[in-house]
Amino acid sequence: MLLLGLLALSLPVLGWGRAFDLGQSTRCVPIPRHMGVCQDVGYSEMRLPNFLGHTSLEAEVVPRSEDWRPLLQTGCHAQARAFLCSLLAPVCLDTFIQPCYSLCVAVRDSCAPVLACQGHEWPSELDCDRFPAQEDMCLSPIQKHTSLFSKGLPQPACQDCPMVVGLPPLKRVLDALCLNDFAVKAKLSRQHLPSGEAEFTVEGRVEFVRQGPLLPYDTQSMLRQWLLINRGCAQTLLRPGHSQLYLLTGTVRSDGTVTLDSLFPWHKKDAHLVLATRKWKHHRC
């Protein structure tokens, strides 16, 4: 029950500016099964038109919901999906339930930097000033939530694409191991979802060469989040439908964010990478 447990039902909420008129006629329709972003939200019927003014499920609601999938995959805020689905697929009840101003601000502050990293601005139609401030008549934030940036664990940062060094000399690899906080060997993958959207994952086990401040149980998830946040870079690193084994070196900043510095494609013919990881155990920087 992702959303129903958060609703407080009392007075009608304020309007949605020019995008939606609370006085207009609405109807209840089933949430389409292929609208995956808003499945399992705690209810099965939605209002149409929705709070974004969409009147057609297939021409507007479903395609627009898919536009948000790359952001939601990053886990930028625990209530981002509830916030967006309350607008795209509002619950069909006796009163109109919008997100509160405070929920919009919480989601925006966590997710807008990630959206910017993906090359998009926070949409004007999601201007938080459009939402009601009264916490008892709208969808409010859960005070104790876990978001991408509040776990207390090393978190991936938005950054320029790190350097990719093919067939590096031995000294170049050892220098990278010395100058960075960590080094891991990981297989990065780019596959396609049925919708045609690229999906980035980390296949198999992450092997530590230099663990540094990384946590073994969180590193695979952290690297996947890095790929999802830095999608433009990930698309240049990985060919569609392929995976690539990399030696990755990086730094954990004082604020707990992680940046990657160098990526070395791991090829069987590259003896220097194998030799560098063996020598590292006894190497003095």
TrEMBL record:
Belongs to the secreted frizzled-related protein (sFRP) family. This is Sizzled. It is found in: Secreted. GO terms for cellular component: extracellular space. Residues 1-17 form the signal peptide. InterPro entries: Frizzled/SFRP, Frizzled_dom, Frizzled_dom_sf, Netrin_domain. CDD domains: NTR_Sfrp1_like. Pfam families: Fz. GO terms for biological process: canonical Wnt signaling pathway; cell differentiation; determination of dorsal identity; developmental pigmentation; negative regulation of BMP signaling pathway; non-canonical Wnt signaling pathway; protein stabilization. Disulfide bonds join 104-128. Transmembrane segments: none annotated. PANTHER family: FRIZZLED, SECRETED FRIZZLED-RELATED PROTEIN 2. Its main location: secreted. Residues 161-285 form the NTR domain. Residues 23-141 form the FZ domain. Keywords: Developmental protein, Differentiation, Disulfide bond, Secreted, Signal, Wnt signaling pathway. GO terms for molecular function: Wnt-protein binding.
